[in-house]
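Raw record, unedited: Glycosyltransferase involved in cell wall biosynthesis
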Amino acid sequence: MPTISLCMIVKNEEEVLANCLSSVEEICDEIIIVDTGSTDRTKEIASKFTDKIYDFTWIDDFSAARNYSFSLATKDYILWLDADDVILPEEQKKFKKLKKNLNSNIDAVSMNYIAATDGNGNPTFHYRRNRLVKRSKGFKWIGPVHEYLAVHGNILEADISIHHKKREKKVDTQSIGRNLRIYENRIKNGEEFSPRDLFYYANELKDHKQYNKAIIYYQEFLDGKKGWIEDNIRACIYMADCYARLGEKENELMALFKTFNYDEPRSEACCRIGDIFQARKDFKTALFWYQLAVKMKHKKTGGFHHTSYTTWYPHLALCVCYWQLGNVEESIKHHELTKQYIPNDPKVLYNEEFFQSYLKNQNRKDSVK
């Protein structure tokens, strides 16, 4: 059975670190913690799980810190996590089984990353990441910020999920605007951005409400024609977000249509287009786009995935559109489909009461006839 080194970089993670490490300590044979400048109890907490705790002077470069942590590993494979990630009990069982049966010809293992969940713990936003890599391959992290692990070879897609479990943390004033600052310092230093840099810099601008500037960089990224398909599609969707914030509905719609330049229609873009036509009270056109969203919901992309757009959202919208178009039977049908996904959601509960009242009144009218 292969051995595993857990390699982590941390800073001021006292609220979450124990939860992370306790979820993985039975899986890993070695835990390596690289601290980039904690001023809280992070190291003290880490010491309860490992004595391999190292310091790394922060130089505004996440890849440098992660590569240093990887350089300290001694086991067959390296697992990486962030401090607010956890492996839930059922996923731990899957991971242990994977470890027991992992063939030595596997160079990397990708796992599903559940970045957000709803009130019932159901995933709402997820994507895949290469989490476990063979140490002897010497894979490196690339990029000072929004870094990625460059892997190649025989990659296994495992049915294992790692959950992002962000808890309330004290505000780290040094981290506010850090990523944007790193990018802008690189620009000042005359560095040339890769396509990935352009995409993630635009994301940071959007997140900091610099919408017009974000649009410029999303367009530069797309014009370069060197981006990953999923990032191209996401850039168009994020451009649509920016236009929406700026109140430019026509440009929002055009940005969503632009996603079709890169691949088959995605449910998210179709739903967003449907929303625009529904807001215009053009329910017939909106119906078309929501129906297309349902049709395309099973496409697997490996990119960012908002679960709502491939589950309940288009059915809820179809419920509304069919009602507005006078097709009560189809409206109720899609209400029932929505209910399968989010039975306790306030919108569903409201519609349930509405339809029950409507059908009761209809039955009363029929009995009078």
